[in-house]
Target: Helix-turn-helix domain-containing protein
Amino acid sequence: MINNDFPRILTLLRKEQGFSQKKVAEDLGISQALLSHYEKGIRECGLNFVVKVADYYGVSCDYLLGRTPHRTGKKFTLNEVPDDSPARAKKNDSTQLEYNRRILVNSLNIVFAILRKIKSESLTNVVSHYLFSAVYKAFRVLYSSNPKNPQGMFELDRRLFGATIESSMAVSEAKERYILSGEDIGECRGVSRDSLPHLTPELLANDYPLYAPSLFDMIKKLETDVKS
Model:
C-alpha cells in the first residue's frame, strides 16, 4: 500500500521541472487521467511504477515514499551534520541533543541567508522577533520549571507570558505575510516581488550544500511529529 506522501511528492517533482501532466504521462507510458489519479491519491500505483518514477526524476524510492527528506535516499548521521556554532558540543552531550542542535542552527543559517538576499530590514526584524519569541518561550518554561529559580530576569507576568508571546508571534507571522505580499503594514515596508528569490529543494541543495540537508531533516521531522 502506497503511503499518503507519494501523491504529494509525485506532484511536487513534476511541478519543479515545469512539466505538464500530459508530458510526464507520455514519458512514463500511462494515460494523463491515470497520472492525475496518482497525484490526487485516488488510485494507488504498483511498486514497478514507483521505481520508474524514481528513475525518471533521478530520486530514490525512499524519497518518493516520504521515508527520507534526501533525494538520494542517503541516511544522515550526526558526524555528517556540519557544526559551525561557537557553542561546541561537550563530550557528555547525548547524540540526539547534539543532532537536534545542529539541525536547528543549520536551518536558521538558511533562513537568514534568504533574508539577506531579500534585503528588507522590516522583514528581517519581523522574522527575528518571531524566532526570538519562540526561543524566549522555550527557555522561560525550562528556566521556570524549578520554582526555586529567581524570576527577576523576566518582566512579563509569569501567569500570562505564554499567551502574550503566542499572540505576539501570531502578529509577527501576519506582518511577515503582508510584507512578502508587497503591502506596507504599520512601520513595516512591503517588499517587491522581484526581490523574492526563486526557491526549490534542488536550488537550496545547490546553494547551501552544507545546511540544506539539515533543513530537509527538520521539515520532515516536524511534519511527522505534527501528523502523529
